Amino acid sequence: MEPHSEVTLVERMSSESNASGGFVTNLTNAIIGEGAKLRRILIQDFNSKVTLHNLENFDLMKDSKLTNVSLHLGCAEARLETKGSILKSGAEFENFSLALGQRDQLIDLRTMQHHLASNGRSNLVCKNALLDQSKSIFSGMIKVENEARFTDALQTNRNLLMSDEAEADSMPGLEISANEVKCSHGATTSRIDEQELFYLLSRGIKKKNAEKLIALGFFEEIVEKIGLDEQLELARNLITQKFVS
């Protein structure tokens, strides 16, 4: 991206439900120039026969900003790798993602927030909701080099198990070589709140619809980051469709 430019990029990956399967590799490389701002939105809804390997690499220059929003709602197996490198001072990297697992789907997420310059900021929020026998793996790293003083970096992974057979593994990490930094990471895994579910069922809402409402509420923190009305509607509709019997 040219210095001091502003771009919003929307990407859509999808396939027909009855289409044949295959292996998809997608590579994204971006350099965000000095003072530039990029908002990038990815919505993936491949059918359950597709295997996806998605690699993303972002280099941020002085005072630039990237907001990366990813929604992964399909595939049989998905390996999702995202790296944001703050190469010059004052840059900001935001990475928001959600994944909805079904059947025996495997979702493997690997992230890196790499700080190589001072006064950089990064914030990662990753949310996974898992149905049936689906499984998620999250491995995230905040790496702060010697020269990256006054870094402010956050990393959060939240998992919602929506069946007794679903599984979530989280491996957040910090590797800090600089002084005077503020870094934190955390991961939580929980099941559906039985009281919340009972309340919805007692109001005459069918269980599938109740689970849909709970998932939509869980994901809303990520979905609202899209910020574009048409894509917001698409995202909510796609999530809703996953709960149609």
Offer a few descriptive terms.
alpha/beta; 3 helices; six-stranded parallel sheet; 245 residues; seven-stranded parallel sheet
Write the layout of secondary structure elements.
Layout: E1 6-14, E2 22-32, E3 37-45, E4 50-60, E5 65-72, E6 77-86, E7 92-101, E8 106-115, E9 121-130, E10 135-144, E11 152-161, E12 167-176, E13 182-191, H1 194-202, H2 207-223, H3 229-241
Parallel strand pairs: 1-3, 2-4, 3-5, 4-6, 5-7, 6-8, 7-9, 8-10, 9-11, 10-12, 11-13
Helix pairs in contact: 1-2, 2-3
* Helix run count: 3
What is the count of β-strands? 13
The mean pLDDT is 96
Largest sheet: 7 strands, parallel
Order of secondary-structure elements: EEEEEEEEEEEEEHHH
Low-confidence stretches: none
User: Could you give the distance between the termini?
Assistant: 44 Å
Q: Which structural category do the helix and sheet elements fall into?
A: alpha/beta
Q: What is the CA-based Rg, rounded? A: 18 Å
Strand content: over 45%
Helix percentage? 10-25%
